[in-house]
Amino acid sequence: MHAFASDTSDNAEYDAIVIGSGMSGLVAGNHLAKQGLKVLMVESHSIPGGYTTNFYRKGFRFEVSTHMLNGCDPDGTIGKILNDFDVYDKIEFKQLNSLLRWIDPTRNIDATLPVGIDAYVDQLCSLYPHEEKGIREFHEKYYPLAAWVVEYEQQRGLNKIAYALQNLPILWRLLSLRRKTAADIIDPLIKDPACREILTVMTALFGLHYTELDAAIFVMGSMMFHASGSYYPIGGSGKLSKVLADRFAEYGGELWLRSHVEEIRFDENGVAKGVMMKDKKGNVISKSTKCVINCSDLSTLVNKLCPEGTLQDNFVNKVRKHVPGNSLVVAWAGLDIDLKDRGVKDFEIIRTNNLSEEMRGTKRLKEIMQSADYSNLPVSGATIYSNIDPTCCSPGKSLIATNFMASHDTFAQMLDSDGGRGVRYHELKDKVEKQLLDVMVDATGMADLADHIEVVEVGTPITFERYTENLGGSFMGWRNTPRQGAFSSFSPRTPIPNLFQCGQWLGVGGVASVMTTGLDAAKMATRYLDRLDKESKLETTDTMATDSPASGSIGVVSFT
Q: Could you tell me what percent of the chain has a pLDDT over 90?
C-alpha cells in the first residue's frame, strides 16, 4: 500500500475539506461536490468570497475590492468555469468599453482609454505623439504574451502542453522576462515620465511601483483586460460569490461560516487525515477527511496549520522567505445625488497631480505608506460603481470609492497593547478618511462632494486582515517583485500527497487566475481520490482472495 493511503481514509467523514471560501475555494469545492463527493468548506467570515464580497450600509451596497474582471465571456477563463457549474446565466456581466478616464491638467489632457488594444494604442499615440515609436514597439512586443496566456489558460489537460509547444517563440519571450522589472522593459522604449505614468497606472493593482514590479506580472496584469475583455458583475462581486456558494450547497457541499480551522491533523505516515476546528459557537471539533485543500495564505499553512516537522524543510523555507504584498486603505461614500447629473459619468477616474519626478517614485510611495499620510498623492483616483451598476444604491444616489496602497505595520502600531482598536487607531482612521474624501474631490472635481455624503466607511489593512485572514491584509498575495513573482510561484501540490493549495498565494493574483488555481487544485485532489479508491478496491480484492470463506471475512470486507 502506498504511503498516501491513510489508515482512516475509508471511514473519513469527508472526501475533502476546503479551508477558506474565497474564489479559489468556491471553485475547488464546487468541482469536487459536483462529482458527488462529500465536501466540507470552512470559512471564518460570516459570508463567503474573501476579497470578492460586498457589504451594506444605509441602503448602499459597497464593493470590497473588485474593480474589473477579465475573461467573463462564455469562452473566457471565468466564463468557462461558471459554465462548468451551469451558473453562467445566473450572473449578468456588464462589458466595459473603457478602462478609465485619464486627466493630466498640466498637459491639458482629459481622455478616456478604451479597452480594445488597437484603439488603446492609437489613443496613447495621439496623447503622446513624440513617444509613438516606443508605444507601438512596446505593445507589439508584449501584448502577444498576454493574448497567449489567455488562450493557454483555456486549454485543458494535455492540450496545454501541445499549445505551449506550438507557440515556442512566444513562450521564450515570456521566459525572457525572468528577473526583470516593469521598468526594465518600459524605460528603454519610453522616455517621457508622463507617458510612462499612464502606461504603468495599472501597477497599482499589484501594490507596487513599476520599478519594483515583476515584468511578467506587469505584462499580464496591464494587458489582460485588453486581451480578454473588461467586465463587472451586476450585483457586485458578492453576487458572484453567492452564486457559487449556492451552487455548492445544491451539489450537496457543506459550508460552515464563522468557523475556523486551527490545525491540520496528520497520521503516522505524514498524511493529512483531518482538521481541528472551532465552529461558530466556539466548540472545538475534529473532522476527518481523505484530502485537504488549503486556500488560506501559505504562511498560515506552514506556521500555524501544519505541526512543526510535517512539511519538508525546502518547502517551509521557501514560504518563509517570501514577503507578503502591501495592503490597502479604502474609503467608500454613499451620496444623495446622482453623479451623472453633475457630469461625472465615468467608472474609473485617475487624475495625475503636478508633482516632481522624485515625488512620484518608489521612495515616495514607501513614505506615504509608512506615514499613512494620504494628503499629497501622485495621483487622485475614484471609482463610481453606481455609474455601471445602478443596483448598488437607490435611484438618484451614487456610490463612490477610492483607495491607495497601505502598510499593515503602520496601522498595527496604532493598536492597543492587547490588539484592540482603541483611540489611537481610530484617530488615524479618521485622519485617513478625511484625506481620502479629499482625493475623491480632486478626482471628480466636485468641490461640494462632502456636502452630499450620506454614509462613509473606511477599510484599513487591519480591517482586511480581520475579515480575510490574509497575512498583513495583503490583497494580491506575495509582494510581486522579480524575486517572488511569476517565475517563483508555488504549485497547487505540496510535499504532502493529499494536501493541496490554491489562491492568490500561489504567485499571481486576480480573480480569473485565482479561480483557475482552485480548479487545478480540485483536479489534483480528484486524481488523488481516484487512486485512493482504486487502491482500496485492490486491497479489498486481495483480502477476499486470501481469506478463508469459513472465517466470515468475505462478507465484512465486501461491504465496508
A: 79
The gap between the terminal CA atoms of the chain, to the nearest Å, is 18
Answer yes or no: are the C-beta atoms of 145 and 175 closer than 8 Å.
Answer: no
Of the candidates 321, 259, 267, which has an alpha carbon nearest to the alpha carbon of residue 296?
259
Q: What is the pLDDT of residues 310-366, one digit of tens each?
A: 999 999 999 999 999 999 999 999 999 999 999 999 999 999 986 556 556 788 889
What sign does the CA torsion over 350, 208, 426, 463 have?
positive
Distance CA 94, CA 59 (A): 22
Whole-angstrom distance, CA of residue 65 vs CA of residue 332: 11
Q: Break the chain down into helix, strand, coil percent, rounded to 5.
A: 45, 20, 35
389, three cell numbers: 451598476
Long-range contacts of 196-204 (CB under 8 A, 24+ apart): 197/352, 197/360, 197/379, 198/102, 198/104, 198/113, 198/124, 198/127, 198/128, 199/124, 199/135, 199/138, 201/100, 201/102, 201/350, 201/379, 204/381, 204/405
Burial of 484 (0-12, 13-18, 19+ CB in 10 A): buried
- One-letter identity of residue 408: H
Q: Are 408 and 445 in contact (CB under 8 A)?
A: no
| Phi, psi angle pair for 493, to nearest 5° | -80, 150
Dihedral sign from CA coordinates of 245, 248, 254, 260: negative
Task: Decide: 293 and 18 in contact? Cβ < 8 Å.
Answer: yes
Give which of 437, 448, 368 is closest to 405, Cα–Cα.
368
Longest dimension (CA), the chain: 95
Is residue 51 helix, strand or coil?
coil
**Centroid of chain to Cα 297:** 11
* Segment 286-303 mean pLDDT: 96
pLDDT in tens, 497-535: 999 999 999 977 789 999 999 999 999 999 999 999 888
- In 60-192, alpha helices (H): 77-84, 117-127, 132-153, 158-166, 168-175, 182-186
> Cα dist. 140→137, 188, 486 in Å?
5, 15, 21
Phi, psi of 452 (to 5 degrees): -110, 15
Task: Say which residues have a Cβ less than 8 Å from residue 302's Cβ, sequence separation at least 6.
Answer: 311, 315, 316, 319, 320
What amino acid occupies position 340?
K
CA 126 from chain centre, in angstroms, equals 34
Distance in angstroms (rounded) separating the CA atoms of residues 453 and 442: 16
pTM of the full structure: 0.92
